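Title: Comparing notes on inverse folding

I've been comparing how different people in this forum approach sequence design from structure. To keep things fair, I'm posting one structure and asking everyone to reply with a full sequence. Here's the target:
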């Protein structure tokens, strides 16, 4: 068998405590800040030229209040504090400006476009990401702040207020839709992890059944020929404990897996090779490479062989689903010391693959379950783009826990 180079992760696995901000979120925030900055500059020009200050005593103060309020509320979009804190600060600034203008009787034809746009942005994010107990009061106050902007002008038309109300309703609905999507996604991820844990429970039963049954049979066969009565009694105790353990394991497995009472045997490397052959037959235009390093399956425990089978199967399904343009797929199994490396690579270009992502952020739920399986046996799983192009699912599993 040809010696294979040891596969390495395409990117370092991040520490669990590090919070990673998606690059698309940073780009979206940059665009939003650029738009708000442009609106603020344009609004300043309009406010400085649009009114005869001599005919309206204190009018320059009103325009200055609107302009500064727009700047302060737009600054609340920046991540300088917790979202709820920034939203509360924006509400205070907006309502303070509105209260000052209404109290002073200074009706400004330009109502604060920058301020309203920033309030709408905060409204959408608050409805989307904030806890319900904080989202309700903050969202109401932000929406009211947007609707109060036209009231600053005594000559504002009722249709303008209605238009503002429709915009507020649309932004709120968009935030609620995103919130619902995230909740459903979290439930689906939890369900995938739970399903993988149930599968692991079944495999653990199969693995323990083999060894506990062998131990029980050995104790049963050795007990009658033992010369020392104390040794025979100990062997009988071992036999009874093994029988009770198997009974308890079967009972617990039946509770955990009521929907799948009948299970097949644990898959080994032979069935993993069948997976690759099936993928090759279903994708005749793709060059599929199957490589197993020397000594990979030497003394391989059944639960590890089953994990390898699941990882390879999900990696191939991931390649077929997200990289249909791939012309080559490589499945590599390699053992180095006390670690197993399972790699499924393809040279396709999956959509939106510009940044490494955790399995739960990749869109599919299969990798979430595999990450749960790898973590349960003390390993790790990464999925992401390769430096030279393509995509790789890589699992590192310990030979011994």
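Reply #1:
Here's my take.
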């Amino acid at each position: 068998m040809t010696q294979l180079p040891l596969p390495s992760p395409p990117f370092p696995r991040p520490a669990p405590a590090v919070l990673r901000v998606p690059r698309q979120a940073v780009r979206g925030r940059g665009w939003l800040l650029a738009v708000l900055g442009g609106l603020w500059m344009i609004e300043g020009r309009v406010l400085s030229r649009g009114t005869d200050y001599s005919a309206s005593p204190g009018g320059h103060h009103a325009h200055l209040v609107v302009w500064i309020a727009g700047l302060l509320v737009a600054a609340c979009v920046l991540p300088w504090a917790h979202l709820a804190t920034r939203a509360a600060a924006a509400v205070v600034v907006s309502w303070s400006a509105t209260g000052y203008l209404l109290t002073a009787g200074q009706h400004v034809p330009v109502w604060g476009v920058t301020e309203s746009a920033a309030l709408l942005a905060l409204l959408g994010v608050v409805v989307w990401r904030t806890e319900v107990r904080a989202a309700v009061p903050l969202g109401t106050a932000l929406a009211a702040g947007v609707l109060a902007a036209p009231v600053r002008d005594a000559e504002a038309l009722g249709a303008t207020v209605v238009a503002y109300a429709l915009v507020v309703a649309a932004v709120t609905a968009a935030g609620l839709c995103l919130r619902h999507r995230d909740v459903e996604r979290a439930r689906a991820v939890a369900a995938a992890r739970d399903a993988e844990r149930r599968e692991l429970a079944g495999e653990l039963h199969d693995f323990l059944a083999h060894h506990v049954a062998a131990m029980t049979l050995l104790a049963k066969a050795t007990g009658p020929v033992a010369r020392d009565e104390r040794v025979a009694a100990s062997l009988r105790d071992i036999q009874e404990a093994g029988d009770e353990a198997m009974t308890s394991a079967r009972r617990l497995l039946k509770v955990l897996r009521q929907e799948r009472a009948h299970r097949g045997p644990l898959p080994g490397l032979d069935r993993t090779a069948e997976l690759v052959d099936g993928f090759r037959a279903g994708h005749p235009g793709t060059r599929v490479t199957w490589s197993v390093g020397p000594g990979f399956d030497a003394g391989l425990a059944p639960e590890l062989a089953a994990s390898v089978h699941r990882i390879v199967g999900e990696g191939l399904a991931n390649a077929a689903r997200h990289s249909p343009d791939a012309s080559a797929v490589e499945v590599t199994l390699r053992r180095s010391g006390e670690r197993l490396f399972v790699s499924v690579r393809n040279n396709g270009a999956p959509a939106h693959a510009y940044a490494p992502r955790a399995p739960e952020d990749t869109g599919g739920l299969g990798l979430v379950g595999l990450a749960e399986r790898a973590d349960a046996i003390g390993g790790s799983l990464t999925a992401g783009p390769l430096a030279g192009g393509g995509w790789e699912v890589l699992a590192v599993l310990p030979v011994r826990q």
